[in-house]
Write a structure and sequence with these properties.
This protein is α/β, with parallel strands linked by helices and 410 residues long. It has 15 helices and 13 strands.
C-alpha cells in the first residue's frame, strides 16, 4: 500500500520532534561548560533563527565574521537546539542560545549590540527586530536574480549590505518608495576572499565540472531546481565520457518537498558511486560537506540552477552554464545576467558534454563573464570585498555613536 502525503508529513514531523529532543538533551549537557560572554563584550550580533537544514546560510559567513571579529567583537544568536549544537562544534565566533524571547531580551540587556546582521528572511527575525537601539542590517546569504532578492521585506531593515550595482538597480526597479541610496551599502562578495581549500581529487587531464543544482522550491514561481529535469541525464553523460570529473554539490534541502526530486538526487549519488567503483582514477565527487569555496574556484566549468551559486561562480570569472527551469511558472528575471546567460535547456541535457567542452574554450563567453562580474560585484581583487565589509561596519558603528550622542543615550 503506497504511503500517502499525510503519512509522509506525519513521519517527517515525528522525526523532527525526536531530533529536537535529542539536541535539547545534548545542549543541557554542553551549555553549562560553554564559555560565558562578559557583559557588553559583543558589538555585532548575527541573528540566525533557522534549523540545521539551513546551516549553509550562516556557514558561508564564518570566515568573513572571524576576520571582522578582530575589530568588532561578533557573536551568532541561535534559536534552534540543533543549530546551536552545530555552532558549538564549528563556529569561529561565540554562539549564544536564545530559544525563547526572554532569552533574546537577556542577551540584549547584557550585550547591547550596536549592529544585528540577518542572513535570511525568517519570520522569526521580527522577534529580534523589536529592539530599537541598534541597527538591523540585512546581509543575505548570497547574490542572485531570484524573486527573493527584491522582496518588500528589505524595507524592514535599517540597512542592507548588497553586492553591487546590479543589486542596487534591482531593488530600485522593484520596490516602491524605497530609498536605495540611503539604505544600501555595496560590499561585493566577502566570502569570495575565502574561496579556498584542498580539492579531494588529483589535478590531471580531466575537465572538472561542478554541477550545483538548487532545491525544488516550495512554490511554483521559485521552482528553479533541475535535478529531475536536467540532472540525471547530465550526470550520466558526464560520468560516462571518460574525460570529465563530476563534482555534484546539490542544495542541502534537495528533496524535502518532492519525493521524486529526492529520488532523482539519490540516483545521481548512486551513479557517482558506481562510476568511481568502475574506474577509481575518475575521482568523481558527491559533495555534501559544510565548506564551500574550492568547488567554485577549481572547476573548469560550472553548471548551476538559478540560485546564489551562479553569482558566487561569477565572482570567480570562470566558465558557467545555467540550467533553464523546466517549470513553466518559474519566475526568471532576465533583466540582468540571466538575459545573457549560457542557458542549458532540459531537452539539451543529453548534449552536456559538448556544451561543457565548448564553454571551457569560448573566448566570447569569458568576455561576457568579465562584464557581468564587474556589474554584480565591482572590484573582485582579493581582499577588496573584505575591506568594504569592514568599512561598512565601521560606518554603521560610527553612525550608532552619532545617534546615541544626539539623543543623549550614550
Amino acid at each position: 500500500m503506497p504511503i500517502t502525503k499525510d503519512v509522509r508529513t506525519a513521519i517527517r514531523l515525528a522525526r523532527r520532534l525526536l531530533r529536537s529532543r535529542r539536541n535539547r538533551r545534548e545542549l543541557d549537557r554542553r551549555l553549562p561548560g560553554a564559555p560565558q560572554l562578559p557583559p557588553r563584550s559583543i558589538e555585532v550580533a548575527v541573528y540566525f533563527a533557522d534549523g540545521p537544514v539551513n546551516m549553509y546560510q550562516i556557514r558561508q559567513w564564518y570566515a568573513p565574521l572571524a576576520e571582522l571579529a578582530r575589530e568588532h567583537p561578533v557573536a551568532i544568536i541561535s534559536r534552534s537546539p540543533g543549530t546551536m549544537t552545530t555552532l558549538l562544534d564549528e563556529s569561529p565566533v561565540p554562539a549564544v542560545y536564545a530559544r525563547q524571547v526572554v532569552d533574546l531580551e537577556q542577551f540584549v540587556e547584557d550585550q547591547a549590540p550596536k549592529i544585528v546582521l540577518y542572513v535570511n528572511q525568517n519570520a522569526r527575525n521580527f522577534q529580534m527586530m523589536r529592539y530599537g537601539r541598534m541597527w538591523h542590517v540585512f546581509v543575505n546569504h548570497g547574490e542572485s536574480d531570484k524573486m527573493y532578492m527584491t522582496t518588500n521585506q528589505f524595507k524592514a531593515y535599517d540597512y542592507a549590505l548588497i553586492a553591487g550595482d546590479a543589486a542596487r538597480d534591482r531593488l530600485r526597479s522593484a520596490l516602491w518608495d524605497y530609498d536605495v541610496d540611503r539604505s544600501t551599502i555595496a560590499i561585493g562578495r566577502p566570502q569570495a576572499d575565502h574561496f579556498a581549500g584542498a580539492v579531494p581529487y588529483p589535478h590531471d587531464d580531466r575537465t572538472v565540472v561542478l554541477y550545483a543544482p538548487t532545491w525544488e522550491g516550495d512554490r511554483a514561481a521559485a521552482a528553479y531546481g533541475s535535478i529531475v529535469s536536467h540532472g540525471v541525464e547530465l550526470a550520466e553523460r558526464l560520468l560516462a565520457s571518460g574525460r570529465h570529473r563530476l563534482v555534484y554539490r546539490p542544495h542541502p534541502r534537495s528533496g524535502v518537498v518532492d519525493p521524486d526530486y529526492r529520488a532523482a538526487h539519490e540516483r545521481i549519488v548512486a551513479a557517482i558511486a558506481s562510476a568511481n567503483a568502475a574506474d577509481p582514477s575518475a575521482h568523481h565527487v558527491y559533495d555534501d560537506g559544510p565548506q564551500l569555496g574550492w568547488q567554485l574556484a577549481d572547476a573548469d566549468v560550472a553548471v548551476t540552477d538559478i540560485s546564489a551559486m551562479i553569482y558566487d561562480r561569477l565572482a570567480v570569472g570562470k566558465p558557467l552554464i545555467v540550467t533553464r527551469p523546466a517549470a513553466p511558472d518559474a519566475d526568471v528575471d532576465e533583466r540582468g545576467y540571466l538575459g545573457d546567460a549560457n542557458w542549458l535547456l532540459a531537452e539539451d541535457a543529453a548534449d552536456v558534454v559538448a556544451r561543457v567542452d565548448a564553454a571551457a574554450n569560448d573566448a566570447e563567453e569569458l568576455a561576457k563573464l568579465r562584464h557581468w562580474v564587474e556589474r554584480y560585484f565591482g572590484d573582485t581583487t582579493p581582499g577588496v570585498a573584505t575591506r568594504r565589509l569592514h568599512a561598512a561596519v565601521d560606518r554603521l558603528v560610527a553612525r550608532w555613536h552619532e545617534v546615541a550622542e544626539e539623543r543623549g543615550e550614550v
